Amino acid sequence: MITLAIPTQSRDQMVDITAQVQQHINQAGITDGTAVVYVPHTTAGLTINENADPDVVHDMLRQLDVMVPWSQPFYRHAEGNSASHVKASMMGSSATLLIRDGRLVLGTWQGIYFCEFDGPRNRKAYLHLQT
């Protein structure tokens, strides 16, 4: 298992980790198999989405704020970060990806995003490569 270091700079942020994952696939010399990426945080998640236009990330974070606002009178969690827990659950905590001919099998515009919802922090994700 490989630990990916992911520093974040803001409360809500999506970090493209596609190149980092691909680098480990290259180093391992895997030609065909699977890659599992897992986020061990309750206020961060993972998603696969477009990585060509940065406005997509902006729009996604903005819409999540609309759906799950930061302050609500009915939040009961004492730490004050209930929205981050909800957003992380909406994104999910893992993704399984295929590897073919030494490359991640992704659509033309797809990338793997670590989704920060309670930053800035020094985060991590785990990567398991399998042939």
UniProtKB/TrEMBL annotation:
InterPro entries in alphabetical order: UPF0047_YjbQ-like, YjbQ-like_sf
Entries under Gene3D superfamilies matching the protein: YjbQ-like (2.60.120.460)
Domain of life: Bacteria
PANTHER family: UNCHARACTERIZED PROTEIN YJBQ-RELATED, UPF0047 PROTEIN C4A8.02C
NCBIfam families: TIGR00149_YjbQ
Family, as annotated: Belongs to the UPF0047 family.
Descriptive protein name: Secondary thiamine-phosphate synthase enzyme
Organism: Mucisphaera calidilacus
